[in-house]
Amino acid sequence: MPGADIISTMSRRGKFITFEGLDGTGKSTQLRKLAGSLRAAGHKVVETREPGGTATGEKIRRVLLDSATQGLSPSAEMALMFASRAQHIAQVIQPALDHGQIVLCDRFTDSTEAYQGYGRKLGSEDVLNLHRILCGDLQPDLTILLDSDPAMSVGRAKRRNQRASDRANNNSRKGASKHADENRFEQQNRAFFARVHEGYLAIAAREPQRVVAVDASGTPAQTHRRILDVVGQKLKVARSA
Ligand SMILES: Nc1ncnc2c1ncn2[C@@H]1O[C@H](COP(=O)(O)OP(=O)(O)OP(=O)(O)O)[C@@H](O)[C@H]1O
Ligand SMILES: [Mg+2]
């Protein structure tokens, strides 16, 4: 009876699972698939994302990701990421964990360390200090790091955004409202994404109990099976029979 031991491991506090990786590695795709599998196994699941996840956080997300935002300093960028996160933890993540739910979050503090710490060269220490000060040092129970070649994944993200912006342009010609432009980071150069990738690998090496790298180069179904195995092993959740 898989349901019984799932429930016994879920008492009191829920589980906090984050998805990390470069743009286009398939985080959002895999988060949706895992949410589906966990719900099918009877779990209460909250799907959320950063920056964003609350009304205020989604406003901050627009500022951070819109390519029309120009000249944002790296420190201001980092501060906005943490403003969104502090609100998200207070309003969504911690209450859900207190109710024993599984929270699946698309990006969390590892993204700030990889993108602002490594990519923007602000360093890990400031990011981790801000996490302690502003986020009560809340740590995920498990982080799935989707790993693939930076050129491949960033290429995927750019093609996806191009399709979204073509659709938005079509719709706006028909009078519908315009889709959000979320291209600001994708416009960075190869050296930036190489640093971000290096940052992720350093985080995984530093915290092997929490962070599990999953090869993201296969099909979505293959990656999903790997993630189900990791979640089952690490957290003793998932899996209907
Ligand atoms: N395993 C895969 N093989 C091929 N294409 C994929 C795979 N997984 C996702 N995709 C496609 O690649 C694009 C990027 O995937 P997705 O949006 O899930 O990535 P992401 O990591 O959430 O990106 P971002 O960081 O930009 O939000 C999407 O168009 C998606 O449909
Ligand atoms: Mg995504």
Give a concise summary.
By secondary structure, this protein is of the alpha/beta class.
Could you explain the architecture of this structure?
- This protein is an alpha/beta fold.
- The chain has one domain: Rossmann fold.
- 57% of the residues lie in helices and 11% in strands.
- It is built from 9 helices and 5 strands.
- It has helices at 2-9, 27-40, 55-65, 74-98, 109-119, 124-135, 150-173, 190-206, 220-235, and strands at 15-20, 45-49, 102-106, 142-147, 211-215.
- A 5-stranded parallel β-sheet has the order 2-3-1-4-5, with helices on both faces.
- Helix 2 packs across helix 9 (220-235) and helix 5 runs antiparallel to helix 6.
- The longest helix is centred in the middle third of the chain and has 25 residues, at 74-98.
- The protein is globular, with a radius of gyration of 18 Å.
- Mean pLDDT is 91; it is low at 1-11.
- Magnesium ion binds at residues 27-28, 106.
Structural Rg:
18 Å
Q: What is the average per-residue confidence, as pLDDT, rounded to a whole number?
A: 91
Helix segment count? 9
Poorly predicted regions = 1-11
CATH architecture group name: 3-Layer(aba) Sandwich
Oligomer state of the chains in this structure: single chain
Instruction: Give the helix/strand class.
Output: alpha/beta
Please give the alpha-carbon distance between the first and last residues. 8 Å
